[in-house]
Each structure stands twice: as structure tokens, then as C-alpha cells.
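just leaving the lab so this will be short. what follows is a protein written twice so to speak, once as letters and once as C-alpha cells for the fold. can you read through it and tell me how you think this chain folds. anything you notice is useful, everything is just below:
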Amino acid sequence: MIPRYTRPEMERLWTDTARYSAWLEVELAVCEVLAKRGKIPPEDLQNIQQRAGFEIDRILEIEQEVKHDVIAFLTSVAEKVGPSSRYIHLGLTSSDVLDTALAITLQRALRLLQEDMARLRSAVGQRARQDRHTVMVGRTHGIHAEPMTFGLKMALWYDDLGRCEERLEQVRQRVRVGKLSGAVGTFAHLPLEVEEEVCARLDLRPAPISTQVVQRDLHAEVLQNLALSAAQLEKMAVELRSLQRTDIHEAEEGFTKGQKGSSAMPHKKNPISAENLSGLARVIRGNSLAALENVALWHERDISHSSVERVILPDSFILLDYMLVRMTNLIKNLRVYPEQMKANLERMRGLVFSQTLLLRLVEAGMTRESAYRAVQRCAMEVWEGAGDFLSVLSKDAEVRDCLGSQALEACFDLKPLLRNVDRIFARVGLD
């Protein structure tokens, strides 16, 4: 069975049913507040609460004629409510409903992403603890650098994902904004107090000031945060893809029974999940740019942003949900090969200890420039195939005379280089 990565709860948030339900939620909250203020008779409010509803097919049928989605929605609701429907949408403009309802949807969608992110972070943290002391070579510029552990790589991602969690919560609070200020933001037909009370009922806060719409820098910030989260997943995916390369092969995605890697080559096991995640991150980045384009509108409002948001918001939320669930699955089923990590670490025949040699020579009295030249001279011989680093250093009179054989051999001990692993883990909350 092909695993399902997108959560049904996220998909449902962006359906027509969910969208119209959020609109109705706003309209009913306004009616309740107006009734409390004596603007709607109690019997009419009761009728509205009991009978208000909609039929999607009927909305779409009406929209074919009126060419206006909110009017079609209101007409469909009115058909169910009857005469009391005259109190629905009193003093409101379409964007009062649309933007306030969108804020409700964004709250729910962001909470789902926060849950996804927390599950992924937990899986990464578990993997980090498991491989805390699994020694491997660190690489800079794709070239062997110094020893590290696979757990440290995962601990870094654990910390990265913590920032992603924080940003999702911060932007969720920032976009928790509704508005009922009317056609140009002047509250010409409803007092500010109605907006404040309705927003409180919907667990939103009123925009301090708005035009006909909530300002789109808020929504752009949401998309930037989604893009940042996707970029973090891509960062992880690119690393895992590299580690699965045949000539490295230190880790690889789980490969299930019956799975096929290539239509032509039966031996293939490809990093398909990580490659998929890398590609999808590009889509969300592109959508975040479209959200930035939505910030500048004509005067107090146009609808150039509306068509864009109908695509980029559901697509980006559903994609990131998919990516988070799929990456969690990848991490949980990741196969790690410590022996291959050890073999790769030893592949450069001791060159990974070059900085240790440099520092010991300086401590022994050499100038840094002289020490660097001596260590580099020996290292270049190893690069050219002269033997292992310790042997070459032992034959170098300048190095041998400065350190002596015992001190020289001590430079090739892994333990001092990894002595702070546990302290780093404690710093990121993995102790």
C-alpha cells in the first residue's frame, strides 16, 4: 500500500464546504452580536441560527448568473432562512466576511502544520540521540574536513526545526486578524465595537486599521514562513540525498519489500523521497513570491490578490503538510551505516587530523606560518599517494624534531575532537 502523506484534515480545510462554512461562521457571529445590541429581534436570530445553511450546487448555480461568489452564497443561505435573512450581512462588505473567515482557516491550518512540525522534530531528536556518538567525517565544500558524529548532524536539524516551530507560532498570532470595517475601512455602517466583539467570539483580534481588506503583508509573511520551513526540509533532503550516493553510502532511505528503483536497472535504490521534497520546496518558494506581489493593491482594494490566493494558499499549506509528513516517514525509516562512515573517515589516511597537528606544532614553539607550511607539505604528499599521514609526518625532520613520536601519535586520537558532543546536545535540549 502506498503510504498517505497528506493529512485529510488539511485537505478538508481548503474544500468548498470548509470555505462556505467559515463564511457562515462569520455571518452568524455578526448576527449574534447585532442581536445582543438590539439590532436583530430575538425570534429572527433564533430562526437564523436554526435554519442557516447552504448547498454548494445551489451556490454554484446562482454564481453562474450573478458572477459574484459572496452574493451567490448569501442568496443560497437566504433561501433556507426565509424572511429573517434580511438581517444577515447587515453593514458588511464581502471582504469583511472573506478576510475574517480566511483568518479562521489560517489559524486551523497553521495549527496542523505545527503538529506536523512537532512530530518531525521529535523523530529527528530520537534519531539524534540514537546516533549521538556514531562517528563520521564532516565535510566542507564536499571535501573531508574533521571528524564529527551523525547525531550532531541530526541535532542541528532538531534545532533548525525548533526555529521553524517558533516562526509558525509567531506568524499564526500575527495573522490572527479579522475586520468588519466596511467598504473602505471607515466603519460607516457598523461601529468598531461590533468588530471587536465578533473577533473576540471567533478568537481573532481586530485589525487596528484596514482598507476594504486585511493588509496582504500579513498573508505574505505566512507564505514566507511556509517557504522557510520548506527550505529547511530541502536542506535536510539534499544532505540525505548526498549521503545515499553510492560513493558515500553512509545513510539511505528505507526500501520496502517489492519496491522498484528503476525501470531499466533492477539494482537501483534511489533517494526518491528526498528528491521529491527538494522539488516541492521550489513550488512553495515560488508561491511565496506570488504572495509578495499581492501586497500592493490599487487604492483601498482591488481583486488581483484574490485569484492568486485561491491557488497559493491551499497549494502551499497542503504541500508543506505533505512534505512534513513525508520527511517524518523518511527519518523514521532511515538506514544508517556506521561501518561505512568509519571507512570513509579513514579514507583520507589521517588528513582529517591536520588542524590538530597544526595547533600542537604551534604549542610546541613553531610559528603558525611555519607549522602550516610543514603540515600542508606533508598533507600534499598524502594527497599524491605517498602513504598515510602519520607515516609521512614521522619522516619529516621538522615535524619530528618539534613534536617527537609520542606527541605526534597523540594527535591522531579521535576523543579530544569529540569531547564536547554531549555538551552540544545539552545546549539544543537533547541531553
About this structure: The chain has three domains: 8-87, 94-252+270-343, 351-411. Strands lie at 135-140, 143-149, 177-178, 205-206, 251-252, 335-336. Residues 393 and 399 are 6 Å apart (CA to CA).
